[in-house]
Amino acid sequence: MSPRPDDPDGALMVRVEARDADALAALYDRHAGRLLALARRILGEGGEAEEVLQEVFLFAWRAAASYDPTRGNVLTWLLIATRSRAIDRLRTRRGTSRPEARRLDEMPVEPAAAGDPEAASADRQWEAVCRSAVRELPDDQRTVMELAYFEGLTQQEIADRTSTPLGTVKTRARLGLMKLRDRLRPYMRSGSRVS
Amino acid sequence: MSHNERYEELAAALALGSPLGAERAELERHLAEGCAVCEELLADGRRAASALAAEMPEVAPPPELRARILSSLGPSRAPEAPARPSSGFAARILAAAAALLLVAVGLDDAKMRREREDLRSRSADLAVRLQTAETALAERTLRARVLESDDVQMMLLGGAGPQPGARGRVFWSPTARRGVLVAASLAELPPDRQYELWVFIEGKPVAAGVFDAEASGRALFESTPFPNPKAQNFAVTVEPRGGVASPTGPIVLVGAPA
């Protein structure tokens, strides 16, 4: 692993990999609120979201070496691990096992580098950029994207749910994602800063 | 198949988290052919999709959850210890330099402490980088020995048992008596398990090394030396971490010799 020196999360991950529990506690303090919010958005208020959070931090503890800083920042790595575990549970609950291997979803990816000694404020800025980018999406595209992201629905399931032709769902997902990507692109390049 | 909008749709669906079912193999083939547009859409799309999670307000986790998680971690090292530098001359120099830096900032006010923390993580980082570079170089040398042999052979491995979607190929050389396994779509294993490669010689499986898959499900692995050059087939099983002398776990990849 080779985090940028100005990446506090990356430095914490190096320590986590060296089995430093204080570093994991620091990661928890920085990100647990955001990750739990995602797990609850997917699974609801019950205890399952907390179980997912526990699994994610155990995963970070045991698989710290699999985090590749060249392919994304730590928060997004944790968000993807959280989403994937929460969606697995959701699909189990629905009685549909998910045909995707989990690992492909966990390829680390990242938004902007929070490369700022006041990392918390950089995180806030990243969130603000993401929020405004999401809000600029047309409603129909955003709906398709959220049904995929938060509910793990196949595109056919989204088509059924929204009474929309499958082809339209595919187009909306593609166009919406490209729009979001283009809007966030200045903040996604390795080494770029939010500020 | 050259790039077209349909592949973009598949890449976008996957990046957003919609399972693809049967179409997934099609997208993977397309990506394996080296389509840079789809590869980039998938990677950047995944980053972009995480923006959807920023929309929700953060919540305060229940206070006892933190303690529960931290107490479930198992053994940890003293926080003073940075990542272990690898052996070798350069690593020793690096470690000595890091130690000097630590001494140089050993004075104890808050600012110094912060700088020391920073240096500590940087020295750990440098040690890890060096270790990674040394390992990569050693691996490349071995791979080159196999792949550049005049007698290099290749065998396709198909998914089996619990992992029908896994796939791989082994390049091996009878003179080098080694093989290089390239695999994809391997599943995540519990921490106490590892993949083990077997080479079939005179009809019997012989252990050829253990490996972990990357987070992406991919693996690139250089086998241990074969006991003799007459490899007939290859297989991968799931075994207890560290490997076993003869296979006990399920076969997840196996070749189909001609």
Structure, described:
- The complex is a heterodimer of chains A (195) and B (258).
- Chain A contains nine helices and no strands.
- Chain A is mostly helical and 195 residues long.
- The longest helix of chain A has 23 residues.
- With 258 residues, chain B is an alpha+beta fold.
- Chain B has six helices and eight strands, in the order H-H-H-H-H-H-E-E-E-E-E-E-E-E.
- The two termini of chain B are 28 Å apart.
- At the A-B interface, helix 1, helix 2, helix 3, helix 4 and helix 5 of A face helix 1, helix 3, helix 4 and helix 6 of B.
Written as H for each helix and E for each strand, in order along the chain, the element string of chain B is HHHHHHEEEEEEEE
**DSSP summary: helix tally of chain A:** 9
Helix % of chain B is: 25-40%
Shape of chain B: globular
What is the structure about, briefly put?
The complex is a heterodimer of chains A (195) and B (258). Chain A is mainly alpha-helical and 195 residues long.
Topology:
The complex is a heterodimer of chains A (195) and B (258).
Chain A: H1 8-17, H2 21-43, H3 48-62, H4 74-94, H5 102-105, H6 119-135, H7 139-151, H8 155-162, H9 166-188
Chain B: H1 5-16, H2 23-32, H3 36-49, H4 63-71, H5 89-104, H6 110-147, E1 153-160, E2 163-173, E3 178-184, E4 193-201, E5 204-211, E6 219-222, E7 231-240, E8 251-255
Antiparallel strand pairs in B: 1-2, 1-8, 2-3, 3-6, 4-5, 4-7, 7-8
Helix pairs in contact in B: 1-2, 1-3, 5-6
Keywords:
heterodimer; A: 195 residues; 69% helix; globular; B: 8 strands
